[in-house]
Amino acid sequence: MGNTGCALVDVDWSRFDPWRIQSVQHSLGGHALLQPDELVALGQRLEDAGRVRTHSDAAAPGTPFNTAPRLHPNRRSAAETLRDIGNARAWMSLLNVQTDATYRNLVDEVLDGLRPGVERVDPGMCYRAGWIFVTSPRAVTPFHFDKEHNFILQVHGRKTLYVWDHRDVEAASERARDRFHASHARDLLVWHDELRERAQVFHLRPGDGAYMPSTSPHMVENGDGPSVTISFTYYTRATRRDSILHSAHERLRHWGIGLPAVGAQPHVDALVFGIHRGLARARRAAHRLAGRSIHPDDAPYALADVS
Ligand SMILES: [Fe+2]
Predict the structure, then answer these.
(1) Which of 21, 208, 236, 307 has the fewest CB atoms nearer than 10 Å to its CB?
(2) What's the CA-to-centroid distance between 31 and ligand 1, angstroms?
(3) In angstroms, what is the span from residue 145 Cα to ligand 1's centroid?
(4) How far is the CA of 215 from the centre of ligand 1 (A)?
(5) Sign (positive/negative) of CA torsion 32, 36, 38, 39?
(6) Ligand 1 centre and the CA of 141: distance in Å?
(7) 39 lies in a domain?
(8) For residue 134, how far is its CA from the centre of ligand 1 (angstroms)?
(9) How far is the CA of 82 from the centre of ligand 1 (A)?
(10) Is 290 contained in some domain?
(11) How far away, in angstroms, is 271 Cα from ligand 1 center?
């Protein structure tokens, strides 16, 4: 693969399209911060800050993603779980690791390396974050999607990653996407087993990875051993615009105004975006005046968001 300017993640930039799923390779396997003892220590620190998401291995592909931790609780602490992940029967995500001073360096190291290649076609990288997934044998990440663009990299063990195109309305309807951007709700995403046939499937081993555009639905099945995976995520000018448009469509729908799907009519998108960007700015200014703290979506780094 063509490697331009990034030592840790190898992307074929000649084929890179920010809205297309693509395989990548990486060389993070031996990184000091991704070794078991370091992850136990990080888990302890993040748990104290409320930045751990976990559920048991009873979660299935169709379990609602947002409520999986409540429906299938993992009652052990982060440190206990991480120390014995082979037997813990758990799925654990260490959230927003960039909030930890040590791990922010890792997020910077990787995303600074990717930035020149990304910016050429998708400018405005911001809201940067890192997420580390430590998973017991055969545990599942339920079917869901996220707002960020995502480089997901397999560090230890094996897993099968299913990803669907972000435009695949069989996997996620336009309405599901609108609602998610407006409220973070994922309840209109519906899993059925036949969806597997429409997915791009990655059989990830250490050193393998994938790029998943914003709101590409995905589901992950862990292999027969424990595994460690890390995701590096960000917004760009285009993902922020896409999010504003979907969110606006959802709000307008409640007023009885139905619009063509985002992307179908560029001039409608331009008009809606112009109006809603203005409203968003006014809202932000009003919050500032009221002394309320806000974390804008063009901030350099993301903050914890457990939902
Ligand atoms: Fe995800």
Answers:
(1) 307
(2) 23
(3) 6
(4) 9
(5) positive
(6) 8
(7) yes
(8) 14
(9) 20
(10) no
(11) 31
Q: Give the Å distance between the CA of 92 and the centre of ligand 1.
A: 12
Dist. CA 146 → ligand 1 center (Å): 5
**How many angstroms separate the CA atoms of 229 and 155, rounded?**
5
pLDDT tens for each residue of 37-83: 999 999 999 999 999 999 999 999 999 999 999 999 999 999 999 99
Print the domain residue range for 127. 9-238
Distance 129 CA to ligand 1 centre (A): 13
In terms of Cα–Cα distance, which of 109, 130, 45 is closest to 82? 45
Cα-to-centroid distance, 86 and ligand 1 (Å): 22
- The structure tokens listed for 199 are 């997915």
CA of 258 relative to ligand 1 center, distance in Å: 29
Residue 165: both structure tokens together: 């195109």
Q: What are 214-269's pLDDT values in tens digits?
A: 999 999 999 999 999 999 999 999 999 999 999 999 999 989 999 999 999 999 99
Q: Is residue 182 domain-resident?
A: yes
Number of domains in the chain: 1
297 assigned to some structural domain: no
Question: Which CATH number belongs to the domain containing residue 148 in this structure?
Answer: 2.60.120.650
- Residue 128's contacts (CB-CB under 8 Å, 6 or more residues apart) are 98, 107, 108, 111, 232, 233, 234, 300, 301, 302
pTM for the structure as a whole: 0.93
